[in-house]
Amino acid sequence: MTKKKILIVEDNKDLADLLALHVGDIHCEADIAYDGGQALSLYDKNTYDLVVLDIMLPVMDGIEVCKRMREQGDYIPIMMLTSKSSELDRVVGLEVGADDYITKPFSIPELLARIKAQFRSVEALAQHRQSAVQDDDIQIGDLSISFAKREVCIAGKPINLTAKEFDLLVYFAKHPGQVFNRTQLLDQVWGYQFEGYDHTVNTHINRLRIKVEEDPANPVYILTVWGVGYKFGVQS
After folding, report:
1. HSE-up of 216 (CA within 13 Å, CB side)?
2. pTM given for the model
3. Cβ(19)–Cβ(30) below 8 Å
4. CB of 74 within 8 A of CB of 44?
5. Domain containing 172 — which CATH number?
């Protein structure tokens, strides 16, 4: 089995070394960066399958590091490490393109499970891309989705979505009118189920509405079904 390569960005040396040791349990090898500048330098020089990125870092914080990594156009999963009290950091991290976050303190088994879930998501995405040319593009109202190009447009204008936002929108669009709860969306789009991570779904849906809805407060595409979950609106 070919080992996957992970970049661990964490200024706490003991924690970074511990994480690097344990990712070996899931057939991964790791490079370690102890500050944001070193992280970007390693990211530019090497090819990684996943990045574990702390938010509080010397030289450059994790939010800026994530933003700069995403500006390069790569769709490598980025998992952010945050303190339990930094709700704003988690939201901003997702906004700039992080795929997931895990709060400190966390258990090693949970982190490893989340990493494996990201790998499964990437593999599923690769399969979807291979079959995308066989899918018909979706056009609903002013919203158009091109599977082959992984492109979303509103009234002909391209919309900049993160990889996970695109996956979420496509999942909704392929199941119009069907209601999904947050646990189902976590399982199908993120590839895992962990109690207490409904906020990940909520944040992505809110960001998606801001980008694709003319009036996010009164959405026509991604609808809330109160007490149940969400569905994709079917327009006549």
Report:
1. 9
2. 0.67
3. yes
4. no
5. 1.10.10.10
Whole-number mean pLDDT of the chain? 85
Structure tokens at 204: 């992505």
Q: Tell me the two tokens of residue 173.
A: 């669009």
Residues 6+ apart with CB under 8 A from 64: 36
119 lies in the same domain as 184: no
- What's the rounded Cα separation, in Å, for the pair 54 and 30? 15
Find, among 118, 143, 163, the residue nearest to 219 by Cα: 143
CB-CB contact of 172 with 222 (8 Å): yes
Tell me which residue range forms the domain holding 52. 4-125
Quick: pLDDT tens for 53-93. 999 999 999 999 998 998 886 678 899 998 766 566 666 76
Burial 169-203 (b: 16+ CB within 10 A, else e): bbbbbeeeeeebebebbbeebbbbeeeebeebbeb
Q: How many structural domains are present in the chain?
A: 2
pLDDT digits 0-9 by tens, 92-127: 767 777 888 888 888 999 999 989 988 887 777 666
pLDDT number for residue 25: 94
Supply φ then ψ for residue 6, to 5 degrees. Answer: -120, 140
Residues 95 and 138 in one domain: no
